[in-house]
Amino acid sequence: MRKPPFVLLLTCAGRKVALANQFRQAFDELDLDGQIIGVDSSSHSAVLSVCDKSYVIPRCDHPAYVPTLLEVCQQHRVQLLLPLIDVDLLVLAEHRERFREVGTLAMVSSLPVVQICRDKESTSQFFEENGISTVGNLSIDEVRHGTVPYPVFIKPANGSGSQHAYKIHNRDELDFFARYVPQPMLQEFAIGQEYTVDVLCDLDGQVINAVPRRRLEVRAGEISKGVTCKDWRIIHATVDLANKLGGTGPLTVQCFAGEDTDSEIRFTEINPRVGGGLPLSIAAGANYPKQIIRMALGQSVEPCVGDFADEFYMFRYEEGVYVPGASLADIPSLPDVPHRRAA
Q1: According to the model, what pLDDT value does residue 222 have?
Q2: Residues near 343 by Cβ (< 8 Å), separated by ≥ 6?
Q3: Phi, psi (5° rounding) for residue 251?
């Protein structure tokens, strides 16, 4: 008997090869004839080289971005579209219904939710309005005038992936980074251990699972070594946050917690997408690819909060995808987009 077909489209495909492979494993577990299509604005993408079909398409800020994705979805009967980074979340959320009309589930939260998460000042306001413990926002003037002691933390209000985020120790650093960081936002410096929580919500916003993990080492803003932590203080607090937010699909939540059992959990960010360290949580037993595919198939997914292995480690190492230049030139461009070459 032929296996049922299933087509997954990964946008802004980039370098998340491990996650693509975990979706392939989920296809096997669900006995599906799965196919992965990858799209990126550059042919120099590791994921494009491991997909069944790949396309170079316009950047997400180009007017042709959504029409091109819709064309791919219709042509290949894509059932599930999954964004892998922040840059196209707003435009995908804005056009979720257009994808639904062509039979594709765009696994992204609603536009109001994405707007809350993508703007860090809106995120802080959401925390405060919903009684969620967080770090305080600061003005540059009050820090300069000594009202608030150093260190403090600066980041872009619309930042992504820890880019342009710095700990500030003194006035000289403050003056420099206030000019250097785009749309700077100052906050109290959080004390305690930082955790990332990989959350999965169903299509009605119900939390399926939440997996806290610690980043033991970070390279270029992404986790390279990490470990899962079954800390129920963090899990319960994150589930409460997610329920108040009403997100759909994957969320990546940042928080700080002390070692004492009664210490406060303070949240700092919400990213409404898969996290760079999600493969660790999946390997620890939180089978998000399988659950996401089942949602796209219209199947019910029961909550299983806490269903993952505690103290499960990940140690990433250097690996590459090796392809001849002719193979990159053979990747179709939709519409006629020149292939970008690395500098």
Answers
A1: 84
A2: none
A3: -130, 145
Q: Which residues pair with 251 in a beta bridge?
A: 199
Q: Could you tell me which residues come within 8 angstroms of residue 46 by beta carbon, excluding any fewer than 6 positions away?
A: 14, 15, 17, 320, 321
Show the DSSP H helices in 30-170 as ranges.
65-76, 89-94, 96-101, 111-118, 120-129, 140-144
Closest to 39 in 3D by CA, of 26, 28, 50, 55? 55
Contacts of 333 (CB under 8 A, 6+ apart): 55, 56, 57, 339
For residue 289, give every residue at least 6 positions away whose Cβ sits within 8 Å of its Cβ, in sequence order, or none: 19, 22, 23, 25, 26, 282
In whole angstroms, what separates CA 102 from the centre of its chain? 25
- Cα 268 from Cα 97, distance rounded (Å): 30
What's the token pair of residue 113? 């939710």
Cα–Cα distance measured from residue 276 to residue 89, given in angstroms and rounded to the nearest whole number: 16
Spatial contact of 280 and 196, defined as CB atoms under 8 Å apart: no
- pLDDT tens for 52-66 read 999 999 999 999 999
Cβ-based neighbour number of residue 293 at 10 Å: 24
Kindly report the length of the chain: 343
Strands 33-40 and 53-56: parallel
Residue whose structure tokens are 């700092």 = 268
Domains of the chain: 5-107+321-329 (3.40.50.20), 114-118+191-315 (3.30.470.20), 136-188 (3.30.1490.20)
Continuous segment of H or E residues that includes residue 226:
strand 222-228
Phi/psi region, residue 29 (left: phi>0; alpha: psi -120 to 50; beta: rest), is alpha
Q: Is 277:213 a contact under the CB 8 Å cutoff?
A: yes
pLDDT tens digits for range 241-274: 999 999 999 999 999 998 777 789 999 999 999 9
